[in-house]
């Protein structure tokens, strides 16, 4: 039996979806929805206000570790760019001469960097150095843009095997151990990533000849001119700092390589892995700041960390509000927000849905894909994970279909949607860095997206 709170929750979900369709940020409807659902549940204005705040606290507590980690990683990335250590890290890519090699080499580099520092910092690091230089030797920027989008947020963040932000959110929403999710997601992520990347490459080979313009004259706005000008100027007043670039690049490479080896050898997962990566990042950041700034390190370190955490909070603030709203429908929301026992709204909806639609593996998988796409219309894909996780566990409980493949499928579809399908999502960021139009880039990312989703869908159906 659905209560008033159930109907109000559905109403605000529909309002959020409508907002996304009209390309408006859905954060305000989600924030108002916290009060609306809280009031419908408690029938008390004061308690409704408290419920809305508890929902934000729940979302923040689940995301705080990822926020701090991303902030530290972004801080380190900015320091590497300041000392030109980033150019040393990507120097092997600058020897590329062919389109095919550029697509795969830059893509694999983007995938590896995304696993370590997430897609946006990785895109900034690679885009600022590789795109303008490869563009000058004849590699069309659309090739690099497709590679960065597909391998970065698509293949990289859909698994998020090292930082584990995405699987951590799904784990919190479903109660499934993060190690189980990581093991189950590995073949899905790799298979869908290979399919998406391969199809993107084929599409480029077929249609790149129709692309107007010459890559030699294409220069990403605000990046290549600045970079090339710096190279022409030679020595600057901060030359001593730049000379430490090789040392800083080596410290970062060895630090993260050692961390990955430790994680693999000791099979560290979840919060423990995030803690290890975060601690190593902080240690590298301290060492690099001291080596770079010398006596100014005391004051500069604070500035660096503030900038990094400010960026991370800016990225995750809307996700906190969106997650807080969707957590209302989960079992965790019932216990920690409404302060009552219960499986949550999503479970109740699924029970009702089972009376109308036969819940076979085909219909359940179709619902997961549909919900993941709708919930990712904000462009990030990340805010869809609590909703998809809650729906996956609810559908599993009612249909007796294993929850893990459903949750993994929702994670992969949600992240890929934000990476390659939504014009105002990661595609927009990539197009800005590469200096190409969003519409032109999507001509190649959408086929890659469809191939990746179909592969993930087929694999999931085989597992059920």
Question: Could you walk me through the main structural features you see in this protein, from its secondary elements to its overall organization?
Answer:
This protein has 464 residues and is mainly alpha-helical. It has one domain. It has 21 helices and no strands. It has helices spanning 4-21, 27-42, 45-82, 85-89, 99-117, 119-136, 141-159, 165-174, 178-207, 224-233, 239-242, 245-266, 270-293, 297-327, 331-336, 345-356, 361-375, 385-399, 403-421, 426-434, 438-463. The longest helix has 38 residues, at 45-82. The radius of gyration is 23 Å and the shape is globular. The model is unreliable at 214-237 (pLDDT under 50).
* C-alpha geometry: globular
Tell me the Rg in angstroms: 23 Å
Q: Alpha-carbon distance between the termini?
A: 30 Å
Summarize the helix and strand pattern as letters: HHHHHHHHHHHHHHHHHHHHH
In total, how many domains does the architecture comprise? 1
Residues in β-strands, percent: under 5%
Number of strands: 0
Q: Percent helix among the residues? A: over 70%
Unreliable runs: 214-237
Provide the residue-averaged pLDDT. Answer: 83
Biggest sheet record: none
Please count the helical segments: 21
Transmembrane segments: 53-80, 101-119, 125-149, 188-208, 247-267, 273-291, 311-333, 353-375, 387-409, 415-434, 446-462
Keywords: Membrane, Transmembrane, Transmembrane helix
Organism: Desulfitobacterium dehalogenans (strain ATCC 51507 / DSM 9161 / JW/IU-DC1)
Region (Disordered): 213-235
């Amino acid at each position: 039996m659905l209560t008033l709170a159930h109907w109000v929750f559905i109403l605000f979900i529909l309002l959020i979806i409508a907002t996304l369709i009209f390309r408006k940020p859905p954060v305000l409807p989600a924030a108002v929805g916290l009060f609306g659902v809280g009031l419908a549940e408690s029938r008390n204005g004061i308690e409704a206000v408290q419920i809305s705040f508890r929902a934000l606290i729940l979302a923040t507590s689940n995301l705080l570790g990822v926020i701090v980690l991303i902030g530290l990683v972004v801080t380190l990335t900015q320091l590497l760019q300041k000392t030109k250590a980033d150019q040393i890290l990507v120097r092997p890519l600058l020897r590329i001469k062919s389109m095919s090699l550029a697509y795969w080499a830059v893509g694999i580099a983007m995938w590896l960097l995304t696993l370590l520092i997430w897609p946006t910092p990785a895109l900034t690091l690679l885009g600022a150095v590789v795109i303008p230089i490869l563009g000058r030797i004849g590699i069309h920027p659309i090739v690099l843009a497709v590679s960065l989008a597909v391998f970065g947020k698509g293949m990289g963040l859909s698994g998020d095997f090292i930082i584990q932000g995405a699987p951590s959110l799904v784990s919190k929403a479903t109660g499934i151990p993060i190690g189980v999710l990581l093991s189950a997601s590995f073949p899905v992520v790799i298979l869908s990533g290979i399919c998406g990347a391969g199809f993107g490459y084929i599409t480029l080979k077929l249609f790149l000849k129709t692309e107007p313009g010459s890559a030699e004259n294409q220069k990403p706005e605000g990046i290549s001119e600045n970079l090339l000008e710096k190279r022409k100027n030679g020595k600057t007043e901060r030359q001593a700092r730049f000379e430490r670039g090789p040392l800083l690049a080596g410290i970062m490479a060895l630090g993260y390589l050692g961390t990955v080896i430790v994680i693999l050898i000791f099979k560290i997962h979840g919060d423990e892995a995030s803690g290890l990566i975060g601690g190593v990042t902080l240690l590298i950041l301290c060492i690099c700041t001291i080596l770079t700034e010398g006596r100014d390190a005391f004051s500069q370190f604070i500035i660096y960390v503030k900038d990094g955490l400010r960026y991370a909070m800016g990225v995750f603030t809307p996700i906190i509000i969106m997650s807080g709203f969707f957590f209302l429908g989960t079992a965790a929301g019932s216990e920690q927000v409404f302060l009552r026992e219960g499986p949550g709204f999503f479970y109740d909806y699924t029970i009702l849905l089972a009376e109308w639609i036969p819940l076979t593996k085909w219909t359940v998988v179709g619902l997961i894909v549909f919900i993941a796409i709708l919930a990712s219309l904000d462009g990030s894909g990340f805010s869809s994970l609590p909703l998809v996780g809650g729906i996956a566990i609810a559908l599993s409980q009612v249909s007796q279909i294993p929850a893990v493949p459903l949750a993994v499928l929702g994670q992969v579809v949600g992240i890929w949607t934000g990476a390659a399908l939504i014009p105002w999502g990661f595609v927009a960021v990539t197009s800005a860095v590469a200096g190409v139009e969003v519409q032109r880039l999507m001509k190649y990312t959408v086929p890659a997206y469809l191939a990746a989703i179909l592969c993930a869908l087929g694999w999931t159906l085989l597992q059920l």
